[in-house]
Amino acid sequence: MQFALPWNDRLGRFAPLKALALAGVIAPGLWIGGHWLNGTLGAKPLEVALHETGLWAIRILLVALAITPFRLITGWGKLLQIRRILGVSALVYVLIHLTLYVIQQKYDLYVVAREIVLRFYLTIGFVSLAAMLALGLTSTDGAIRRMGAARWQKLHRLVYPLAALGIFHAFLQAKINVNEEVIQFGLFLVLMAVRVMRSRVPLTFWPLVGLVILSMPITAGLEALWYGLATGVPWRRVLDANFMLALAPRPALWTGIIALALPLASLLSHRASNAGTPRARSDRVQPTTGVHP
């Protein structure tokens, strides 16, 4: 039936934004699968695929968490169309990630269960998966009607600690090179800060620029703290590296560069508004999203 197609809106009409989001979440899986089939995924393709699917699950989840900040900043309500696609896709990548781990353990479910219990980073990962599965199973319109909007919202606020646990799991698994994990957590903090700011300061260009500037030393401090506690590398050397222009850009700078999308979105939205472009505003609960605002 046409209305059930994932690239259509609720009225069964083709929604370009949903189609673009769907293509975006499928592309990484096709890239991983294509390289695996072509033998170009490295000497240990299973290990690489396991790592990549985990990373993409968190990346997509962060994009899903960015929907509400960008909606609040721009007033573009159509962004809500793609939140469910992103949330469910993140769950799919997590399930593939777990499946690949089972394959890596030669389908021995006893070993898988034992490892999950005995290895802390796997325990955290499994708890995140279980919570994400609960959110995915209750992302349907029917589940929302049965639970009621208030209870559904309360449950789906689990997405915040879930995302933090997922990133922490990636930290523990990466151990030494945690550049991307530091960036992910820095961006997670930025997205949470926007939610706090919404009721205290206007989400306009300069406050958001201030948030971007603040995010960089916090991210640098997080990186230094991790290396100091987890690897024994002197934390001050890691912190100082963030201010050495001769070195490759550190995670703090990348976090700031990516977070600049927020004030830029505010600036462009303001200019569009001044030019007379109508903006769709919607601060109501949208019960068809799959991931809480």
What attributes does this structure have?
single chain; 293 residues; mainly alpha; 13 helices; 0% strand
Short description:
This protein is an all-alpha fold and 293 residues long. The protein has one domain (2-274).
Structure report:
This protein has 13 helices and no strands. The protein is mostly helical and 293 residues long. The protein has one domain.
What are the SSEs and their pairings?
Blueprint (H helix, E strand, L loop, with lengths): L15 H23 L6 H30 L8 H22 L4 H10 L1 H18 L3 H7 L1 H8 L2 H16 L4 H19 L7 H26 L4 H7 L9 H9 L1 H14 L19
Helix pairs in contact: 1-2, 1-3, 2-3, 2-8, 2-9, 2-13, 3-5, 4-5, 5-8, 6-7, 8-9, 9-10, 9-12, 10-11, 10-12, 10-13
Number of extended strands? 0
Q: What is the 3D shape?
A: globular
Distance between the termini: 29 Å
Cα-atom radius of gyration: 20 Å
The helix/strand series, from N terminus to C terminus, equals HHHHHHHHHHHHH
Give the number of helices: 13
The tally of domains stands at: 1
Low-confidence sequence ranges:
278-292
Strand portion: under 5%
Mean pLDDT: 89
Structural class: mainly alpha
Largest sheet: none
Helix coverage percent of residues? over 70%
